[in-house]
Write a structure and sequence with these properties.
There is one protein chain. The protein has 363 residues and is an all-alpha fold. Helices cover 68% and strands 0% of the residues. The chain contains twelve helices and no strands. It has helices at residues 7-28, 49-55, 61-74, 80-113, 128-148, 154-163, 167-183, 195-213, 216-243, 250-271, 277-304, 311-334. α1 (7-28) runs antiparallel to α3 (61-74), α4 (80-113) packs antiparallel against α5 and α5 packs parallel to α8 (195-213). The longest helix is centred in the first third of the chain and has 34 residues, at 80-113.
Length: 363
């Protein structure tokens, strides 16, 4: 297998998690925030949701794609027992810890914000994503090892041919469009703890692996045709905005989602596949930050929304607070205290603090 490190994939994971934080903060300023379990500002910024709707159809699917790619890299030097052990430490342990110690904290802050009776409720919360990823690892591992042992086979040659054509990625999108047609999600962008999120995540995880498995063919195609995919995605978004009040039929949103993702992959492969000391730090910080961001975000909202100021300034304040406090907690607590590290997906040995992503380790 090819062993070159893919810095662009590392960068996309960091950037996508940052966008996810901003997206979650924007929900606080929508009038329906409480109905999806978020704290809510009494001074909404409904116009802020228009750009967020451009993001909402691909913010989670791209993370599933990237996680599938990560499994490819993690498999290069591990047998199946080693890989399951490593994924258990990196994904299942933080997931279980989060259910009993992380999600209950932001639920507690939610209760305090709305002056509800305080109680302890173990829950997956936003960490449902980790549970899905671990399930996909167990589900697809036999297939992926079979493919790994047959890299010169007919299936690999077929992938090379399909992904060499700009229509190849769009052909893959037909599977996602079929999922939306069959499952019929009421809200396409609602992925958490839904059948739609489970099936779509499985497809993205599977094809994410295949995109890297195919070697340079997929990546050269999205690099060459990135602007075409992005123009098509923008056209589909404009259609969704103008004709469907932002909630188009699922099959159209599935196609739009993948076009955004293929374009982003092309941009990343063109401009971001370079080593960076900043990337080494952010890549390792991204996973713990994702785990704790809801707690910090709710705390920021609890403090800042009480201050009489323009709601846009409140949005900026919650954003700065969330990013700053998350990275301070990572730098001075999670990263430095040995027994906390494995609970957030990091190696417990501080002397082996390598620059590597967590959900996918390229070694």
């Amino acid at each position: 297998m090819k062993t070159d490190r893919r810095h662009d994939i590392d960068w996309l994971r960091v950037i996508t998690i940052a966008l996810l934080l901003i997206y979650h903060i924007a929900i606080i300023f929508q009038p329906w925030a409480m109905f999806v379990g978020f704290v809510r500002s009494e001074r909404p910024l409904e116009n802020l949701w228009v750009p967020m709707t451009m993001l909402n159809v691909w913010r989670i699917p791209i993370l599933f794609f990237v996680s599938g790619m990560g499994l490819y890299f993690a498999m290069r030097k591990r047998n199946w027992k080693q890989l399951i052990g490593e994924r258990t430490r990196r994904i299942l342990v933080p997931f279980l810890f989060g259910i009993v110690a992380i999600a209950p904290l932001h639920i507690y802050l939610f209760q305090a914000f709305y002056k509800l009776p305080l109680g302890y409720y173990p829950h997956m919360g936003h960490l449902w994503f980790l549970g899905n990823i671990f399930a996909y690892v167990l589900l697809f591992l036999p297939v992926f090892y079979l493919l790994k042992n047959r890299e010169g086979g007919k299936f690999k040659k077929l992938l090379d041919k399909v992904f060499s054509n700009p229509m190849g990625p769009l052909l893959i999108s037909l599977v996602f469009m079929l999922e939306a047609f069959l499952v019929k999600p009421q809200i396409y962008s609602l992925y958490a703890e839904t059948w739609h999120g489970l099936f779509l995540g499985a497809l993205a995880f599977f094809f994410g692996y295949l995109f890297v498995y195919s070697g340079p063919y997929f990546w050269n195609t999205v690099k060459k045709w990135k602007w075409g995919y992005l123009v098509l995605a923008l056209g589909l978004y404009i259609l969704r905005y103008a004709a469907f009040n932002l909630e188009a039929p699922g099959y159209l949103m599935a196609l739009e989602s993948n076009c955004w993702i293929f374009g982003v992959f092309g941009l990343g492969y063109t401009y971001l596949n370079k080593p960076s000391k900043v990337l080494g730090y952010l890549s390792q910080a991204a996973y713990p930050v994702y785990i704790i961001h809801m707690i910090v975000m709710y705390l920021g909202a609890y403090l800042i929304l009480r201050i009489p100021m323009n709601p846009m300034l409140q949005f900026l304040g919650v954003t700065v607070f969330t990013f700053a406090v998350c990275y301070l907690l990572y730098e001075f607590l999670i990263r430095r205290i040995w027994f906390l590290r494995p609970l957030f997906g990091l190696k417990s040995n501080r002397t082996k603090d390598k620059k590597e992503p967590i959900l996918f380790k390229q070694s």
